[in-house]
Design goal:
alpha/beta; Rossmann fold; five-stranded mixed β-sheet; 5 strands; 6% strand; binds 2-acetamido-2-deoxy-beta-D-glucopyranose; hydrolase activity, acting on ester bonds; GDSL_esterase/lipase; signal; SGNH_plant_lipase-like
């Protein structure tokens, strides 16, 4: 009896030690802004075609179909894990006070830098709306922490990732039947107009306490199954017109990072999602992937014309070999590659000027 209880005590001490040994996260908090690539449920209760809270979405995620546009993890889930958080950063919709302290995710599928972007898909929270939600969250943090100085100090230690722009091309500029922007602006002018607005919005983020900010570039949207199926001449070659417009945007985004870094206390960085995708397409095998063409694991390619997976559609079995999960969104396998290289750059061109691991230590 005595022996058994001392054994139990030792076991409890051992378990407590394991818990203590679990490293604290590298930063106290992580806030996320973006679109469907990182939305984790903010669109679930709004009237929109851009929703993913039904199977087979989340088929490989412990919590099932949460609203993530992936079979499993998104890029920011992978990043939050690498930063040492025990839990994934929760959606702002329905977040508790405790969760506000460690950070929340404001991302909304179909959202853009421009307010009208994505409107043909229904309601969404544009980047402007996400910033309004963030400002409410900051006010709540001030009352939780007691005063503005404490909130400012807390926020200055948080990581922020912001990934906007894909929809301003896909669900705006390159949808001329619905949006007039491609008649109003050349690709160069449109990038300027977007960057002007983005810059003002990011200034709001900075004015509300954000200091460690990573701007995720727009990926190779012209190589997504949807664009390959609809706009590629042979269904195989990436749509150059789209990719070249996105590269103009990305190049100016790098310039914006340099500008922000002249502000007091600012540590901005650029994550070269486009280049990382290019690397994967050049050597899929080296990244453990086999299918990088217009066959998504579910959606277009398996069922032409379809944009999201249909409810309860049976997806491919070998999901970890696919680059794309549905017509627009990468699989967990691809998201994990992007998250890993954003956190710890594999080549100098992955980030500008620093990776997230370095940003966390600033
Ligand atoms: C895409 O690649 C896979 C694997 O190589 C192949 O089985 C499939 O038929 C291809 N799909 C299309 C639409 O070419």
């Amino acid at each position: 009896m005595e022996r058994a209880s001392s054994w139990l005590l030792q076991l409890l001490l051992f378990l407590a030690a394991i818990r203590l040994a679990r490293a604290a996260p590298q930063v106290p908090c992580y806030f996320v802004f973006g679109d469907s690539l990182v939305d984790n449920g903010n669109n679930n209760d709004i009237v929109s075609l851009a929703r993913a809270n039904y199977p087979p979405y989340g088929i490989d995620f412990e919590g099932g179909a949460t609203g993530r546009f992936s079979n499993g993890l998104t890029t920011v889930d992978a990043i939050s894990r690498l930063l040492g958080f025990d839990n994934y950063i929760p959606a702002y919709a329905g977040a508790t006070n405790d969760q506000l302290l460690t950070g929340v995710n404001f991302a909304s599928a179909a959202a853009g830098i421009r307010d009208e972007t994505g409107q043909q898909l229904g309601a969404r929270i544009s980047f402007g709306g996400q910033l309004q939600n963030y400002q409410s969250a900051v006010q709540q943090l001030v009352s939780i922490l007691g005063d503005e100085d404490s909130a400012t100090n807390h926020l200055s230690q948080c990581i922020f990732t912001v990934g906007m722009g894909s929809n301003d091309y896909l669900n705006n500029y390159f949808m001329p039947a619905i949006y007039p922007t491609s008649q109003q602006y050349t690709q160069e002018q449109y990038a300027d107009v977007l960057l002007d607005q983005y810059s003002q919005q990011l200034r709001t983020l900075y004015n509300n306490g954000a200091r460690k900010v990573a701007l995720m570039g727009v990926g190779q949207v012209g190589c997504s199954p949807n664009e390959l199926a609809q706009q590629s001449t042979n269904g195989v070659t990436c749509v150059e017109r789209i990719n070249s417009a996105i590269q103009i945007f990305n190049r100016r985004l790098v310039g914006l990072v340099d500008e922000f870094n002249t502000l007091p206390g600012a540590h901005f960085t650029y994550i070269n999602t486009y280049g990382i995708f290019e690397d994967i397409l050049r050597a899929p095998g080296a990244h453990g992937l086999k299918v990088t063409n217009r066959s998504g694991c579910c959606g277009v390619g398996r069922n032409n014309g379809q944009v999201t997976c249909l409810p309860f559609q049976t997806p491919c079995a070998n999901r970890n070999e696919y680059l794309f999960w549905d017509a627009f969104h990468p699989t967990e396998a691809a998201n994990v590659v992007v998250g890993r290289r954003a956190y710890s750059a594999a080549t100098p061109s992955d980030v500008h000027p620093v990776d997230l691991r370095t940003l966390a230590q600033r």
